[in-house]
C-alpha cells in the first residue's frame, strides 16, 4: 500500500499541496483527478522522491522512501526521460543494467505489442510512440506499484485504445496503479478508486463502484459536485 | 559499487564524441602548426645555405626550440580543451534537466544511492581531464617523431621531451616537472570542480534563491582557501608562522572545503533536489 500522510509542499510562497492524505492499494487502480495545476504530478514526484515535501510522510508498504523503493515502484512520467541520442535497444539495456526487477521477456512482449522498432533513436520518436516506449519502461519491471502521470495526454485514438488495453490486461492486474488524469472520460470504467484534487487539497476520495451502485453517480457527477458546488 | 561503475561508463559514453573531437582538434592543430613551422625553418636554412654557402649562425633545430616557436599552435587547442571541460562541468548536470528528455528523473529513480550519481559525474570529469592530458603526452611523442622525420639529420640537435614541455608556457603548466607541483595544480582544479558541483546542486535544489546561496557558498570557499595566505603570508620574512605551518593550514582548509562540499552535495542530492 502506498500511504501519503499529511504532505505539504510550498512553491514560490504558496502551498501547492496542503495536508494531502490518501492511500493507493495493491491490486487496485487509483486515479488522481484534478484540473491543471491541482498538484497531481507534484504528488507523484513527491512519492518518487523527485521533489522534497515540507512536512508529512510517504510510506510504501510501511517503509519510508529509499533506494529499494525504486525496485518496487515504477514511475511513468508525462514524458519520456531517456537521453535522445540513445537507441530504444540501448534504453532497454540501460534499464536491465540497473534494475534487478527488470523483466526482459515482458519488455520484449510489450515492444512487440506496441510494434516498436528497437533500432530507432529515442530522439526520433513521435510523441505517441515515445509515450508507448515510456510505458514499456514503466511496465516491464516486476514492480509492485506503477505510478503514471497523464498516460493518455496527447496520444492519438488508436494508441489510446492500445494503452487502455494494457490497463485491463494481466500486466496491471496484480499491481497497485496510481495514475493522474484530467480527462476522466474513457478511463472511468477502468478505475477502482478516485481521489479528486482541488487547489492542492483532497476534495473527495471514494470507491467508484460503491458510488455508482449506491448513489447512481458517475465519477464525472462527483467531480461536478466538487468543482461546481 | 557495480552501479557506480555503470554510471561512470554511461557518463563517459555520453561524452565520447566530444572527447574525440577535442583530441582530434588538438592533434590537427598542433601537428599542422609544427609541420608549417618546421618546413619554413628548414627552407630558410637551405635557402641561406644556397645563397651564402654556409648555414645560418643558429642553424641547429631542436624539438624544444620548435615548440618554443609554435607557442600559439600548441596553446590554443589546449586552452580550448580546458574551456570545454570547464563548461562541461556545468553541462554534465544541466544537460540532464533541460531539453526534451529530462534524464535526471531516471537517474534519481535508479535503485542505487544517489551519491553514486555525483561520484560518477565527478569521476567521469576527472577521467576526461587525465584522458586529455595523457593524450597530449602521447601526442608529444608523436610530434617528436614527426620532427625527426621532417628535419634533416644535419640540422637536428637533440633535446628531451621535458625541455620541449618547458619551452611552451601552457604545456609547462599542464605537465609540471615536479610531482608535487602536479598534485597542487590538479588538486586545486579538482577541488574547484567539487565546489562547482555543490554550487550547481544548491541552485538545482532551491532554484532562483539558490543562485544567491550558491554564490555565497562559492565565495565562502574561495575566502577560506585564500585567507591563510593573505593573513599569515607565505613569503614574508617577518611572518608569525613558518611557511611549513601556513602550508599545513592551507592543506587542512582545502581538505575541509572538499569534505564539506562533497557532504553537502550528497545531502542535497538525497534530500533536497527537485526535478
UniProtKB/TrEMBL annotation, chain A:
Record Pfam families: ABC_tran (PF00005)
High-level lineage: Bacteria, Bacillati, Bacillota, Bacilli, Bacillales
Protein name: ABC transporter ATP-binding protein
PANTHER family in UniProt: ABC TRANSPORTER ATP-BINDING PROTEIN ALBC-RELATED
Residues in ABC transporter domain copies: 2-224
Keyword Lipid biosynthesis set for record: no
SUPFAM superfamilies, A to Z: P-loop containing nucleoside triphosphate hydrolases
Organism (species): Cohnella terricola
Entry annotated with the keyword Acetylation: no
Automatic annotation (TrEMBL), chain B:
Source domain of life: Bacteria
Keywords for the protein's UniProt record, in alphabetical order: Membrane, Transmembrane, Transmembrane helix
Transmembrane segments: 20-38, 73-95, 116-139, 183-202, 214-234, 246-270
Protein known as: Uncharacterized protein
Species in which this protein is naturally found: Cohnella terricola
